[in-house]
Amino acid sequence: MNLQEAISHKVFKIISQSAKELGQETYVVGGFVRDFLLKRDSKKDIDFVTVGSGIELAEKVHSKITDASKLSVFKRFGTANFKWEGIDLEFVGARRESYAEDSRKPFVEDGSLEDDQKRRDFTINALAISLNEENYGELIDPFDGIGDLERKIIRTPLEPDVTYSDDPLRMMRAIRFAAQLGFEIEENSFQSIQKNASRIDIVSKERVMDEFQKIMMTEKPSTGLKLLDDAGLMQFILPELVALRGVEEVEGQTHKDNFYHTLEVVDNIAPNTENIWLRWAALLHDIGKAPTKRYDKKIGWTFHSHEFVGSKMVFKLFKRLKLPLGHPLKFVQKIVLLSSRPIALVDENVTDAALRRLLFDAGEDFDDLITLCKADITTKNERKQRRFKQNFSLVEQKIKEVEERDKVRNFQPPVSGEEIMETFGIQPCKEVGLIKNSIKEAILEGEIENNYESAIKYMMELGKKLYLTPKLKNSDL
User: Fold this and answer.
1) Spatial distance between the Cα atoms of 326 and 468, rounded to a whole number of angstroms
2) Is Nucleus one of the keywords (predicted)?
3) What is the pTM of this model?
């Protein structure tokens, strides 16, 4: 293990020299060290801890580099950072922390390197490399973080109850690291998360979502999502998802466990998209099934209108979790609402009108919708799975043909409201909207072609039925 390679960049020598001039012990710590030892792509951000003022060290280093970005100083937190050659460099003084029971904001005082390592969340993040002249490049590992890296274990430096109760966000981080790195959470540590799960409520929704999003973007999201559920955290974050868990039986008839089905769908979609909001749509596509679940003696279990109910639930969920309420919300709502529509078009006798209407409703998100529908095939029966995928391929081909011919994706009626008013000499009124909508419906139903000439002709016919008289132009006199 050649740690000299980890600190081969010229910035480490500059920091070492600056620390010597200030008479401050200095170390590189945390994720950079961990990722180097794991042979992962090292982060483009590096944390430095100094026994003394982190701000003074940052200022000294910054003064020696002529082409660095502006130095940002945060006196309240005793930190400073700047960027150089694409690397974010963060400096902080070694700290000792203590916490009040109802807050994750610590009382901070100056401390030693050992104090600083003790306050770290996990042993694998408490590793430090010395930048001091007398032991430059030496690994400082008081909690056997190296051993935990080899054993692939997530473990806390202190008693886990202290670590997690002090800062409950660390429970989310434990699960995120386990999911990202393919590690296991040490047994005592996991039991402590289960015991302290309710304390996640004192953490801001924004911070919780930041960790949750990282779990959602892992290679296999179900690993972290299942850990969140097993730990008891999911019920405080997404109770709507937890409500899908379990199988009921009535008169010998059961339904699938929609919670585990959902995790499969998210895993299925993950290799096909880096779009976090499409992954969210996969996670939430069935949330309307819990409130709509009914048992009918004639047909068994039903979930009528679960897509509509689910799309309405998405708004409240996004608002509660402080997720963006603009385009991401609208996108997830749309995909959830339409999530079952393509399945209904698998029938051989599906009409072009039904295909046109789906294309129009899905618009630019049609391809994402189809990606979700394919991910929604979770049957373990290979024959059924093959048949479902072949059926979807047929639907895609039919839709491609309709789209090429009719150009209805994201289309606007060829005749505008302004032209309707000008033609009939009328002011804004319900008839304008009625005519415009009727033209759109006629195109979608295949009654007229999607072009200006056909739309104008159809508009004039509608005008007659509504007793509207076209205005004469001068050229017509």
Assistant:
1) 40
2) no
3) 0.84
